[in-house]
């Protein structure tokens, strides 16, 4: 458009533009940053509408009493009672959010139900262990893929393939592997002495199955992101290091690691968020009854059939809170690094 | 580098005003497109499973039967399907009703979770909708256990129309049993004891060389709490909340899961799985079931039976219908559920002896529906004998007036009718689950603890003591709510 071009070149809005509507004129005169915020307003409004408003309503609901019968879905205001129930192992659900009490003797805590029947610990454990292994294995794969060798393209495809498998299919694969009469998984693991006879019904075995399933799949994601970081490293730095006599370990520690740390941290952040929300993989493989995650609890409370919306809201709000807190660890810890998330 | 804003405008080639205009047009168009969907007209919409959708084909036999039974010829029923799993269908129904959507007009609801919907005022009282004739038929002829799960537990008013009942049945390989020298002639009508059952299963297994004596469902899921375990404790004379008159009103019921009959039932099942090596084994009972049953739901248990590897198989009648379709019909028999104690030895009235878990589905009316009159007509038409028999013929769903099976010809109307006598016995001894507004919550506690006890993770006593605590707490919770 010629008028715009004129305006751009001149750096000033010509007279004929000013005759237009006042808002548009005001917009034209904004600074670059102000204009950017103006454009972001719809997104912020939408975000407020679809994220913060529901979160607020969830919190309001969580302060009300459960009503399992009658036309009213919620009872009167009960303060933090639902939260107290959820956090003290007194929730009206088959699995507990957490059920820990202090005791006089070592180790000073007592578990009301086994640790792996408590959603908080299942989820935290799952997130920490799976992200750790995915990072280590993903790093290894990325280092291999970064080399030049024959058939590299095919190895790449092979490594990335699990990432292309839909979650439900992935869950079904592991479900069938450990379904007696169908898969060989149970027999194999029992022969190795690692699993009991019914791994899908045993919380401990089932937790391991979910972990392995997730690591198998998501390592590819880590490998991809880390590889992207690796390939952006300036190769001449290695040549200099070699001339200077740096060992492979030193080259890794002093060149590779610091340079890909930003990419690595972003990848880990993404994976951690995903892992904290795990649901589909569990539901389609071993089931939420055996391995309850936080999201499992929310779904169970909301759609379990007994109308306990107050409790469901409390569980949901706590889940959001836990994920938020856990994720902010990254943001706080790495605030001052180059990879800081601003 | 600080970019010059004017330069940037040039490089993008799009002015601010045209960008904002285009973006708002796209946004507005998108939103309008999403909200613009209307509801279809001219049909009663029902929410059900794929089987229901199949038989409600507009060209099919059932529509004709409904019209013949008095439904206006310009009314058709179209079925929207949900997930096949009952619990997922329950949450879908709950979402629709919670949101007070006007469609679907009719809901197909599991007899195991209709009462919570009634108590939450998400159904319509049918007493002032259906004709007196129909109400009389339901009151006098319908299977009583099924109708009880369709009534408001406090007022006794009818809120749902039983579409078909379903019963847990014991299916067995008649050919293998006879080869092993058993006379199976009265097996279809005379229940045997669980002890005899386990001996027969073990014996026939040894004689025929098949892999397993018995498969059933014992995974940690609703089916264990409502049905397979409920069935077994009933045959032992035990119950979750005392006798059969304590089923449908929660709040302060006496919890009886830690009583001896319930413990015996668990000990028996553990013996079936783990044999006499188990420290809690019942003496005289055989090891007959694979340990994998603690992971089995219906189809997992049916697999090995359909593959010819099992002597005895507990399942719903659908499984026997499939066996007939697969050409195994002549080899499969059906017997009433074996018993743990005789009826007169049972601690509670109506328990002990043979028992069959009650399943099956009802139809309910959506209170927010805009087609209530048409939908009521559909319900009226389903409550006629001709329609019930047509439903049985096209889908194998047992008529809610079970006696109708006596007079039908199996050749003509479907193989399940061959087992009419056994199914009637099941109907007479049907035990509904104790369904209340908090049953889903209690059921989850039950299946979890029972499954742990079956797996040997907890002793029967420990598991049932833990369960009793949870159930008492949940009865107390709902009791408190009543006071306010």
From the structure above, extract its key features.
heterodimer; A: 342 residues; mainly alpha; MetI-like fold; two-stranded antiparallel ribbon; 4 strands; 64% helix; disordered N terminus; B: 484 residues; alpha/beta; D-Maltodextrin-Binding Protein, domain 2; 2 domains; six-stranded mixed β-sheet; four-stranded mixed β-sheet; 20 helices; 11% strand; globular
Provide structural commentary.
- The complex is a heterodimer of chains A (342) and B (484).
- Chain A is built from 15 helices and 4 strands.
- By secondary structure, chain A is mainly alpha-helical.
- Chain A has a domain of 219 residues: MetI-like (MetI-like fold, Orthogonal Bundle), CATH 1.10.3720.10.
- Chain A has a two-stranded antiparallel ribbon. Chain A has a two-stranded antiparallel ribbon with strand order 3-4.
- In chain A, strand 3 and strand 4 form a beta hairpin.
- In chain A, 33% of the residues are buried.
- Chain B has 2 domains: 193 residues, Periplasmic binding protein-like II (D-Maltodextrin-Binding Protein, domain 2), CATH 3.40.190; 239 residues, D-Maltodextrin-Binding Protein, domain 2 (3-Layer(aba) Sandwich).
- Helices cover 45% and strands 11% of the residues of chain B.
- Chain B is α/β, with parallel strands linked by helices.
- Chain B is built from 20 helices and 10 strands.
Structural domains of chain B: how many: 2
CATH topology name of the largest domain in chain B: D-Maltodextrin-Binding Protein, domain 2
DSSP strand tally of chain A: 4
The CATH homologous superfamily of the largest domain in chain B is called Periplasmic binding protein-like II
Instruction: Report the span from N to C terminus of chain A.
Output: 36 Å
SSE series of chain B:
HHEHHEHEHHHEEHHEHHHEHEEHHHHEHH
Radius of gyration of chain B: 26 Å
CATH level-1 class of the largest domain in chain B: Alpha Beta
Assembly level: heterodimer
Q: Termini of chain B, distance in Å?
A: 67 Å
> What is the N-to-C order of secondary-structure elements of chain A (H for helix, E for strand)?
HHHHEEHEEHHHHHHHHHH
Helix and strand content put the structural class of chain A at mainly alpha
What does the radius of gyration of chain A come to? 27 Å
- In CATH, what is the class of the domain at 115-333 in chain A? Mainly Alpha
Please state how the strands of the largest beta sheet of chain A are arranged side by side.
Answer: 1-2
Poorly predicted runs of 5 or more residues of chain B: 1-11, 34-39
Q: CATH architecture of the largest domain in chain B, please?
A: 3-Layer(aba) Sandwich
